[in-house]
Task: inverse folding
């Protein structure tokens, strides 16, 4: 009788704790989804003139300037990206179209103007560098929150703002080069104002920071962001001329766009 | 004279364009390029045209001028070249000069001198019958020089998710083949590798509308896959025929084919096939003219961790009426197999934020027993300065095959380019 009562008690306890753990996980996932939406899916698309400064370990800086256009096919789902390079001079007119898939590998095409060639790029490695910067393709177009287990660590602050600290662990460790990462979700805008990527040894290998947030057309926008690779270089991205109005039709992200940039995205 | 006129027109166009616009975008580069043979080529030099040690020793400046407006774009690209080993030491190479505009929502027009490429191959071609510059390709110029300019009227229509393209040229532009100046060539009549003075004469079709070229393509998407159908009417891009008195010429050709490209698991697949119908010898019974062929290839690419990319391709060329072809070959003469197979491989790696790039591309002719390997490494010294070293290594069992004919032309090169 006694043992039965103990078992029942333990069962009830397990149920209660289990449920609250599940609820906590759900709250964490929900927060990360909100953050993902604020950062990657603001409005239904938009465009910006992006200036990228890549600084190597020895402090030597290189600059890239490109226009980036986005259209969402589905909110929190597939997206289309178009990048048209302005600087450096040797890559001017080069363009990139990415069909980002919520599930499966993206489709990527590169336009090589000197050959008038549209080349398809193997896109199975989303962790490869985006145009030589310290950002990966995944950093630029997003990693689905459902690919990780999330846990709220608690209220904290980062970049001078009140934030909620979340720990995210990849469900499949083959999909990430880190063991887990911390995200500080800004309580006000839900933007991921800071991230730290931690390896197996518990050491931080990359740190991401949003240095400036501007509300544009009603959408809080991270206009200056930096990725620091610890003990190596860093890349800072600045967004200018941001607009969320009248994004291109999703059907236009094709060979015609690669070869014929809209004139407003060529200066 | 004609060449001089072209240059004057080009330069005039440059100035007009520069003046017509408030803010034309001008970019370009200056490049020093030194190419040295791995071994001296005795077929060249010593009174012959060409240099037995250096296939190329040049300074090249490229000017690009572009202007975008709501009505379309204007683009001009010209190379100003000074080459110590070329017969015309300095010259202007007008590589592109075109106007592009959208006539209707569904129709784009691009007219003028331009570079055109289509198809899915990596340095191999089946349906892309636009001209190639093999002379540049084997003599140390950047890979992009494989495509020489052509004068084309190009119409592109977008209808119901399909893209329909037609490109028309008022005259035929053949491939730019080694001619015994920078690189020695095989003379089939002498059965020897020779310099320009002994290179066989080649007749080009006279420039009349009847000898124009037409290229067509219909393409579309199906999910992540891209497909295309192609057609061509014109001439064999290389002189695949000769007259009884020993003059090579370009016989008529029409071609039709298709291509497919898309992902298979973690790989990217591309495949292409084309029928080359030798219009002047459809039965294959004329020993002086190339027989019809089926050409095709299939390839896989994959990106690996740490910025490695690898790719392999199989290319096959199947000759129709091979038995008739064999009957036409003089006893003991060189012959080609009915199916000629070539395999290619590419390994590519970026390092240090893509400032260092290393690649290796190789062709292995399984049937012809010849090969060509292109290792290359480049380093971006600063944002503007890129230093490239590489080699074009080539050899073969026989002197009449695709790569074997150029076997005395292996070289190494170094290029320094300042872009602005």
Result:
């Amino acid at each position: 009788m006694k043992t039965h009562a103990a078992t029942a008690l333990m069962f009830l306890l397990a149920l209660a704790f289990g449920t609250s753990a599940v609820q906590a996980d759900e709250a964490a996932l929900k927060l990360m989804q909100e953050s993902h939406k604020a950062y990657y899916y603001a409005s239904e698309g938009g465009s910006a003139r992006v200036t990228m400064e890549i600084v190597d370990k020895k402090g030597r800086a290189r600059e890239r300037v490109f226009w980036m256009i986005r259209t969402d096919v589905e909110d929190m789902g597939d997206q289309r990206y178009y990048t048209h390079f302005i600087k450096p001079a040797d890559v001017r007119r080069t363009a990139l179209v990415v069909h980002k898939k919520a599930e499966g590998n993206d489709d990527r095409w590169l336009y090589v103007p000197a050959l008038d060639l549209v080349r398809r790029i193997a896109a199975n490695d989303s962790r490869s560098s985006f145009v030589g910067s310290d950002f990966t393709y995944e950093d630029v177009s997003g990693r689905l929150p459902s690919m990780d287990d999330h846990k709220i660590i608690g209220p904290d602050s980062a970049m001078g703002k009140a934030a909620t600290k979340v720990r995210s662990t990849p469900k499949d460790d083959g999909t990430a080069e880190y063991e887990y990462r911390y995200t500080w979700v800004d309580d006000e805008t839900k933007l991921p104002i800071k991230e730290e990527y931690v390896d197996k040894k518990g050491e931080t290998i990359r740190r991401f920071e949003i240095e400036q947030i501007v509300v544009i057309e009603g959408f809080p926008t991270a206009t200056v962001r930096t990725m620091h690779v610890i003990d190596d270089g860093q890349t800072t991205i600045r967004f200018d001329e941001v607009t969320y109005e009248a994004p291109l039709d999703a059907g236009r992200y094709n060979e015609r766009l690669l070869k014929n940039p809209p004139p407003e995205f060529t200066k | 004279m004609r060449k001089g006129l072209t240059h004057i027109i080009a330069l005039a166009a440059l100035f007009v364009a520069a003046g017509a616009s408030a803010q034309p975008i001008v970019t370009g580069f200056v490049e020093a390029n030194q190419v040295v043979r791995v071994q001296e080529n005795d077929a060249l030099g010593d009174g012959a045209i060409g240099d037995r040690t250096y296939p190329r020793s040049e300074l090249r400046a490229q000017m690009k001028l572009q202007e975008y407006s709501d009505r379309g774009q204007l683009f001009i690209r010209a190379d100003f070249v000074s080459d110590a080993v070329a017969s015309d030491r300095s010259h202007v190479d007008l590589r592109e000069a075109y106007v592009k505009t959208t006539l209707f929502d569904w129709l784009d027009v691009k007219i003028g001198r331009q570079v055109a490429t289509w198809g899915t191959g990596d340095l191999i071609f089946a349906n892309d019958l636009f001209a190639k510059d093999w002379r540049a390709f084997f003599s140390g110029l950047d890979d992009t020089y494989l495509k020489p300019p052509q004068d084309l009227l190009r119409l592109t229509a977008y209808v119901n998710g399909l893209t329909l393209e037609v490109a028309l040229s008022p005259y035929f532009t053949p491939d730019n083949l080694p001619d015994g100046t920078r690189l020695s060539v095989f003379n089939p009549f002498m059965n020897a590798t020779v310099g320009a003075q002994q290179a066989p004469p080649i007749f080009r079709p006279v420039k009349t509308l009847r000898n124009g070229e037409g290229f067509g393509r219909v393409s579309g998407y199906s999910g992540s896959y891209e497909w295309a159908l192609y057609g061509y009417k014109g001439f064999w891009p290389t002189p695949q025929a000769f007259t009884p008195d020993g003059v090579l010429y370009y016989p008529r050709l029409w071609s039709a084919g298709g291509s497919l490209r898309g992902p298979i698991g973690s790989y990217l697949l591309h495949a292409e096939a084309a029928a080359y119908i030798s219009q002047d010898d459809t039965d294959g019974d004329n020993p002086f003219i190339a027989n019809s062929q089926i050409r095709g290839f299939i390839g896989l690419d994959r990106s690996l961790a740490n910025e490695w990319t690898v790719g392999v391709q199989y290319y096959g060329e199947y000759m129709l009426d091979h038995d008739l072809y064999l009957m036409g070959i003089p006893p003991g003469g060189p012959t080609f197999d009915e199916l000629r197979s070539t395999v290619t491989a590419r390994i590519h790696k970026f390092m240090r934020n893509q400032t260092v790039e290393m690649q290796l591309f190789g062709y292995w002719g399984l049937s012809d027993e010849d090969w060509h390997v292109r290792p290359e490494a480049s380093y971006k010294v600063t944002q503007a300065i890129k230093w490239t070293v590489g080699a074009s290594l080539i050899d073969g069992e026989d002197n009449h095959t695709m790569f074997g004919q150029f076997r005395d032309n292996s070289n190494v090169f170094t290029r320094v380019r300042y872009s602005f």
